[in-house]
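Predict the assembly for these two chains.
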Amino acid sequence: MSEVIFEVKNLQKWFPVKRSLGQLLRGQRTWVRAVDGVSFQIKKGEIFGLIGESGCGKTTTGKLIMKLMDPTGGQMLYRGQDVTHLSPEALQAYKREVQMIFQDPYASMNPRFRIREVLTEPLVIHRLGGNEQEKLALAADALTKVKLTPPSDFLDRFSHMLSGGQRQRVATARTLILSPRFIVADEPVSMVDLSTRAELLHMMKEIQQDLDLTYLYITHDLSTARYFTDRIAVMYLGRIVEMGPAGELIDHPLHPYTRALIAAVPEPVPGRVNVIKEIPIKGEIPSAAQIPAGCRFHPRCLFATDECRNLPEPELVQAEPEHLVACRRYKEL
Amino acid sequence: MKLKDLRETLRDFWGEFRKVRYGMVGLVMFGLFLLIVILEPVLIPFPETGRRWRDITYWEDNPKNAAPVWVNWFTRKDYTPQAVLDKPEISERKAANTQMVEAVFTYNYKYDLPPIDLLLRATGKGLLNLAVHLERPDGLSIELTKKSIRLSGEAPVRLSLDKEASGAVGDFLKTYEDPDVLRGVSIFTVKPVEVFFARAEPGILRNPVPLKGEYRIKLTCVAVGSGAFLKEPALTVAGRVFGLMGTDASKRDIWSGVIAGTKWALLIGLLTSAVAVIIGVFYGVTSAYFGGAVDLVMMRIYEVFQSIPLLPVMIVVSAVFKPSIWTMILMMCAFFWVGSVRTVRSMGLQIKEEIYVEAAHALGASRGRIIFKHMLPQVIPYAFASMALQVPVSIVYEASVSLLGLGDATIVTWGQILHDAMQGGAVLQGIWWWIIPPGLFIALMGMTFAFVGFAMDTILNPKLRTR
């Protein structure tokens, strides 16, 4: 349980902003700092949750891990190996072991492909699975794992003939077919009906335990994160502001942002559903192109002091064993 | 294994295709066009149409600007249709150095407007003394002409009785027409054949009444000299209406021309559009996928081709080289590929950003796989549609080039027929049968491919399907 399978050190991804002619002549460059120094370790066999608002850089982090884009800075280690920059062959080998489930089950499968083609595509790409029959058997096997049974009912369908939940199961089956060790799940249930969410997460957890997988679970949904993950990291504007075991982090949040996030979760309590809650936060998330100086959360923080505004950004510090927070004043709050 | 897959895919595809009604209509029409191409030798009365379209001697027996035969169904007075009588009763006698041939043609005349000419054709050799007699249903017998021809070798003989019988018609008119009328008429303006098919009574010149019944045209030939002979006599009644689609100003049979043009239309249309669209689709998708500098360079090259007008280039090329259908197809391919590039590129740019392409990247798919398996198939329906639309464009373009006199002179195309119609003033003279058949065939050909293309679109785009 203690072996680190994936480690990210000070990962950065900056996107250049298109410059006007004036800026071009003056040599100015501006960047959208989508991921701005993220570090975490994921242990083998755990489910690690990455939580944050839209635009906080959590999906970008997922894509960087999937090698869908190159990081601007920092380092990524997979099972001790540096995977920040890889040769084409090493990249193929890496992509065999690290898989991704995408947020939108409606768009993540080619609408022209039958389910059998969706599922066998990874095998074709990596030249695995032997002949056509063996590939199909593997596909059927993967469908059984995600509880789409009998597989023969699904193999010849197109993805648009399935429900959202079924599609996400197929997407999961596609990632499983190469027997990966590490799966990045980018909001896998956010576009699925509420009623099937728990079912899907349950299935994912079962598979994780059966196949000894490690998940990076990216979400904005605290309630599923609590249910699903072992550890959670909360991201704000491209940085991790708090990280700790799921239960403790949600029951005893230390960072004011985490508190606001938790307070924002609507509670389906009778008599209170119509009450709009007072959330301990102000304003909107700033643009990642203009990250505030000092603590990047200070313009929205109700507890910010001059210190927070003027001193350099607080680093993650250990508040309790396993529980880290990037806030100067967490003790006082 | 792969072959079996392909067969299965095709069977699936056919199963789907059968359900699209207009697709089937298109396919049936395409089948008909193919059938026309295959059955061309059976369908056309002039088997050498393809080769001798511009050879006026091949068409000289036909009437000029004759309407189709079936206009008789709609007119009060019936026009005489073209007829060829090639099985006369022949009696032959041979003496020492002479051969006497007598051929009797029987023609049943039952129309209101007489033929414009009677043409006698035969093959002969030596000194031929010819005489032609006409026996009318009313019992009158007229000697139409007497003529001697000397042929040094075996050669064709052709007699136009309209020209040869001007003497006979004078005598005939003097006997039956009112002298007062005749005095004001020059005999050279009289059409002999028209007179001979009218009732012999005063008014025959001004208000002829058709004399219907059986006419017998007797050709007598005395061939003098050793080896002199006359054989295979045939009589053509040059009608006022001709064939299924009439004739043009050069006496050509439009039906034969249109049928013979079908194969060229199919060839020009299919080959040009297929090659052009395939190049365009590949170009567009490649440009979209690679993006950046590659896209920039490829788009500039595209714009160069886009901005060069094809017509002047084709004129120059045709002037430098011999105008040929193959050069034309090549030139059209070299310039028509730009037609689909922009759309395909923009589709490609959109598909490139689709999550399933990203998912394929995440799975480690190669560039080739993403282009061929994920991007190109999405563009195929559009490619088929633009191919279908390109077919008539190519045909019309070939026609435009023909219009400038730069068409391939060794073949006949619908475009060339239309071009001739325009030059021959078919519109002003109301010769609709010269314009409508080739025009209609071009339209039908375009419709065929549009139907098939749209049907393929519905099938290949699974989102349009319902289950």
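Chain B has two domains: 2-43+254-464, 77-238. DSSP finds 18 helices and six strands in chain B.
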